[in-house]
Amino acid sequence: MSNPARRSLKREPPPPKKRSGIWIVINLLLVAAAAYILYKREHAPAEAPEIPPPVSVSTPAPGTPPVATSVPVTRPVPTATPALVAAATPEPPIALSTVDRRALPRQVMLTKPVDFILLSDGKQIGSIHAAPGVSVDFVEVASDGEIEVQMGGARQTIPASDTDIESRVRKLLKYQ
What tens digit of pLDDT does each residue of 14-63 get? Predict the structure, then answer.
Protein backbone atom coordinates (compact mmCIF):
# COMPACT_ATOMS: atom_id res chain seq x y z
CA MET A 1 0.00 0.00 0.00
CA SER A 2 1.04 3.45 -0.51
CA ASN A 3 2.20 5.63 2.24
CA PRO A 4 -0.03 8.78 2.70
CA ALA A 5 3.03 10.85 3.63
CA ARG A 6 4.63 10.06 0.26
CA ARG A 7 1.58 11.19 -1.61
CA SER A 8 1.77 14.71 -0.20
CA LEU A 9 5.41 15.09 -1.35
CA LYS A 10 4.47 14.61 -4.94
CA ARG A 11 4.25 17.99 -6.69
CA GLU A 12 1.85 18.92 -9.39
CA PRO A 13 3.15 20.92 -12.35
CA PRO A 14 2.53 24.67 -12.10
CA PRO A 15 -0.31 26.09 -14.18
CA PRO A 16 0.77 27.65 -17.52
CA LYS A 17 1.62 31.36 -17.31
CA LYS A 18 -0.88 33.68 -18.90
CA ARG A 19 0.46 36.24 -21.35
CA SER A 20 -0.57 39.69 -20.31
CA GLY A 21 -2.14 41.93 -22.99
CA ILE A 22 0.07 44.83 -21.89
CA TRP A 23 3.21 43.10 -23.21
CA ILE A 24 1.65 42.69 -26.63
CA VAL A 25 0.80 46.40 -26.71
CA ILE A 26 4.33 47.36 -25.61
CA ASN A 27 5.87 45.17 -28.32
CA LEU A 28 3.60 46.70 -30.98
CA LEU A 29 4.55 50.21 -29.84
CA LEU A 30 8.26 49.37 -30.06
CA VAL A 31 7.86 48.03 -33.61
CA ALA A 32 5.86 51.12 -34.63
CA ALA A 33 8.50 53.45 -33.14
CA ALA A 34 11.29 51.65 -35.00
CA ALA A 35 9.37 51.86 -38.29
CA TYR A 36 8.72 55.59 -37.74
CA ILE A 37 12.41 56.29 -37.06
CA LEU A 38 13.48 54.41 -40.20
CA TYR A 39 10.89 56.29 -42.28
CA LYS A 40 12.01 59.68 -40.95
CA ARG A 41 15.67 58.84 -41.55
CA GLU A 42 14.95 57.97 -45.19
CA HIS A 43 12.70 60.98 -45.86
CA ALA A 44 14.64 63.59 -43.87
CA PRO A 45 14.45 67.13 -45.36
CA ALA A 46 17.63 68.69 -46.68
CA GLU A 47 19.40 70.83 -44.15
CA ALA A 48 19.68 74.52 -44.87
CA PRO A 49 23.24 75.86 -44.91
CA GLU A 50 24.36 77.16 -41.56
CA ILE A 51 24.54 80.95 -41.43
CA PRO A 52 27.64 82.20 -39.58
CA PRO A 53 27.02 84.50 -36.62
CA PRO A 54 27.42 88.24 -37.26
CA VAL A 55 30.85 89.66 -36.65
CA SER A 56 31.03 92.65 -34.37
CA VAL A 57 33.67 95.27 -35.05
CA SER A 58 34.63 97.72 -32.37
CA THR A 59 35.09 101.31 -33.49
CA PRO A 60 37.19 103.86 -31.63
CA ALA A 61 35.46 106.48 -29.56
CA PRO A 62 34.73 109.76 -31.37
CA GLY A 63 37.54 112.24 -31.13
CA THR A 64 40.24 109.56 -30.78
CA PRO A 65 43.05 110.12 -33.24
CA PRO A 66 43.91 107.18 -35.50
CA VAL A 67 46.90 105.07 -34.54
CA ALA A 68 49.84 105.51 -36.91
CA THR A 69 51.49 102.35 -38.15
CA SER A 70 54.42 101.94 -40.42
CA VAL A 71 53.98 99.81 -43.52
CA PRO A 72 57.11 98.51 -45.21
CA VAL A 73 57.30 99.47 -48.86
CA THR A 74 58.31 96.70 -51.21
CA ARG A 75 59.13 97.16 -54.84
CA PRO A 76 58.27 94.50 -57.36
CA VAL A 77 61.22 92.57 -58.69
CA PRO A 78 61.35 92.56 -62.50
CA THR A 79 60.91 89.07 -63.88
CA ALA A 80 61.03 87.53 -67.31
CA THR A 81 57.88 87.68 -69.42
CA PRO A 82 55.77 84.64 -68.56
CA ALA A 83 55.04 82.16 -71.30
CA LEU A 84 51.60 82.32 -72.78
CA VAL A 85 49.24 79.95 -71.04
CA ALA A 86 46.45 78.39 -73.04
CA ALA A 87 43.15 79.61 -71.72
CA ALA A 88 40.88 76.86 -70.42
CA THR A 89 38.04 76.37 -72.82
CA PRO A 90 34.68 76.25 -71.09
CA GLU A 91 32.71 73.07 -71.55
CA PRO A 92 29.66 73.38 -73.79
CA PRO A 93 26.31 73.54 -71.98
CA ILE A 94 24.44 70.28 -71.47
CA ALA A 95 21.07 69.83 -73.17
CA LEU A 96 19.19 68.85 -70.00
CA SER A 97 16.11 67.66 -71.91
CA THR A 98 18.22 64.87 -73.49
CA VAL A 99 19.72 63.67 -70.19
CA ASP A 100 18.28 60.48 -68.67
CA ARG A 101 16.04 61.28 -65.67
CA ARG A 102 18.18 58.99 -63.46
CA ALA A 103 21.22 61.21 -64.11
CA LEU A 104 19.44 64.34 -62.86
CA PRO A 105 20.00 65.30 -59.21
CA ARG A 106 17.25 65.44 -56.58
CA GLN A 107 18.49 68.79 -55.28
CA VAL A 108 20.36 71.71 -56.79
CA MET A 109 22.11 74.67 -55.20
CA LEU A 110 21.16 78.20 -56.22
CA THR A 111 23.95 80.41 -57.59
CA LYS A 112 21.72 83.49 -57.85
CA PRO A 113 18.89 84.72 -55.59
CA VAL A 114 15.39 83.48 -56.44
CA ASP A 115 11.97 84.61 -55.15
CA PHE A 116 9.45 81.77 -54.81
CA ILE A 117 5.82 82.93 -55.05
CA LEU A 118 3.38 81.37 -52.55
CA LEU A 119 -0.11 80.80 -53.94
CA SER A 120 -3.39 79.84 -52.26
CA ASP A 121 -6.44 79.22 -54.43
CA GLY A 122 -4.63 80.90 -57.34
CA LYS A 123 -3.90 84.08 -55.38
CA GLN A 124 -0.46 85.22 -54.27
CA ILE A 125 -0.24 85.20 -50.48
CA GLY A 126 3.48 85.84 -50.09
CA SER A 127 6.91 84.91 -51.30
CA ILE A 128 10.06 83.17 -50.09
CA HIS A 129 13.43 84.74 -50.88
CA ALA A 130 16.13 82.12 -51.42
CA ALA A 131 19.71 83.40 -51.34
CA PRO A 132 22.60 81.93 -53.35
CA GLY A 133 23.94 78.76 -51.73
CA VAL A 134 20.53 77.44 -50.66
CA SER A 135 19.63 73.90 -51.77
CA VAL A 136 16.23 73.47 -53.39
CA ASP A 137 14.40 70.40 -54.68
CA PHE A 138 14.74 69.74 -58.42
CA VAL A 139 11.34 68.91 -59.98
CA GLU A 140 11.79 68.66 -63.75
CA VAL A 141 13.35 70.15 -66.87
CA ALA A 142 10.96 72.81 -68.19
CA SER A 143 12.91 73.46 -71.40
CA ASP A 144 16.56 73.21 -72.43
CA GLY A 145 17.53 76.40 -70.64
CA GLU A 146 15.07 76.28 -67.73
CA ILE A 147 14.29 73.95 -64.84
CA GLU A 148 11.49 73.75 -62.32
CA VAL A 149 12.52 73.78 -58.66
CA GLN A 150 10.58 73.67 -55.41
CA MET A 151 11.14 75.19 -51.98
CA GLY A 152 8.69 74.95 -49.10
CA GLY A 153 5.80 73.89 -51.35
CA ALA A 154 6.33 76.78 -53.79
CA ARG A 155 7.42 75.88 -57.34
CA GLN A 156 9.30 78.21 -59.63
CA THR A 157 10.71 77.89 -63.15
CA ILE A 158 14.20 79.40 -63.27
CA PRO A 159 17.13 79.44 -65.71
CA ALA A 160 19.34 76.38 -65.28
CA SER A 161 22.33 78.75 -65.22
CA ASP A 162 21.07 80.13 -61.87
CA THR A 163 21.87 76.74 -60.28
CA ASP A 164 24.70 74.23 -60.16
CA ILE A 165 22.69 71.55 -62.02
CA GLU A 166 25.10 71.31 -64.96
CA SER A 167 28.12 70.60 -62.73
CA ARG A 168 26.10 68.00 -60.79
CA VAL A 169 24.93 66.31 -64.00
CA ARG A 170 28.50 66.27 -65.37
CA LYS A 171 29.69 64.67 -62.14
CA LEU A 172 26.91 62.05 -62.21
CA LEU A 173 27.48 61.24 -65.90
CA LYS A 174 31.22 60.97 -65.32
CA TYR A 175 30.76 58.12 -62.82
CA GLN A 176 28.15 56.14 -64.76
Answer: 777 666 778 788 888 888 888 888 877 776 666 655 666 766 656 656 66
In a domain? residue 7: no
Report if residue 2 sits inside a domain: no
Supply the range of the domain harboring residue 151: 97-174
76-121 pLDDT per residue, tens: 666 655 555 555 566 777 777 788 888 788 899 999 998 888 888 8
How many structural domains comprise the chain? 1
What is the C-alpha separation between 116 and 138, in angstroms, rounded?
14
Which residues are registered as beta bridge partners of 147?
141, 158
SS (H, E, C) 147-163: EEEEECCEEEEEEHHHE
For residues 87 and 54, give the distance between their C-alpha atoms in angstroms, rounded to a whole number.
39
Helix and strand element counts for the chain (H, E): 3, 6
| CATH code, domain carrying 160 | 2.30.30
Is residue 8 domain-resident?
no
> Which pTM does this prediction carry?
0.47
Tell whether 61 is covered by a domain.
Answer: no
- From CA 148, how far away is CA 138, in angstroms rounded? 6
